[in-house]
Design a protein that fits this description.
By secondary structure, the protein is mainly alpha-helical. The chain has a domain of about 70 residues. It has five helices and three strands; from the N terminus they run H-E-H-E-H-H-E-H. A three-stranded antiparallel beta sheet has the order 2-1-3. Helix 1 packs parallel to helix 4. It is flat and about 90 Å long. The N and C termini lie far apart (about 85 Å). It comes from Streptomyces griseosporeus. Pfam families: DUF742 (PF05331). InterPro entries: DUF742. This is DUF742 domain-containing protein.
């Protein structure tokens, strides 16, 4: 005689939450719209010439935010009291790099920020430093 086998109970998945009033289910055959494209367009405006910025270009604010500045421009000016790279600004504001370059291009044209190349360190250390280290090691 074999003992009866136990069957595991599988919990039922919880019912989905009801849709909020702002979210309406898509009709059959229609795809849902992306979440932020219209917001990115309002930030960047029309697509024009862009400044030559890369991820490590440093941005520094030249003045306090004017009252006519958009929220994104105000955030950039407040963050850039000290130099910040374009990659850091993009991450802090949660904007794609392309949208950030368009925003910064407009701010550079207005003169509210200044862009500069990153500080490049020397490839070789100073010769006097190497000699001092060598003499120090010889004394040991």
């Amino acid at each position: 005689m074999t003992p009866p086998q136990r069957q595991r109970r599988r919990p039922e998945p919880p019912p989905p939450p009801p849709p909020s009033p702002r979210q309406q289910p898509a009709a059959a055959g229609q795809e849902e719209e992306p979440k932020k494209p219209e917001r990115l367009y309002t930030i960047t405006g029309t697509d024009g010439d862009r400044a030559q910025l890369d991820l490590v270009t440093l941005i520094v604010a030249r003045a306090d935010p004017p009252s006519s500045a958009t929220p994104e421009e105000t955030a950039v000016l407040r963050l850039c009291a000290g130099p910040l790279s374009v990659a850091e600004l993009s991450a802090y504001l949660r904007l794609p790099f392309s949208a950030m370059t368009v925003l910064l291009t407009d701010m550079l044209a207005a003169g509210t920020v200044h862009a500069r190349a990153p500080i490049v360190r020397q490839t070789l250390p100073d010769r006097s430093l190497l000699e001092a280290v060598m003499h120090g090691l010889e004394r040991l």
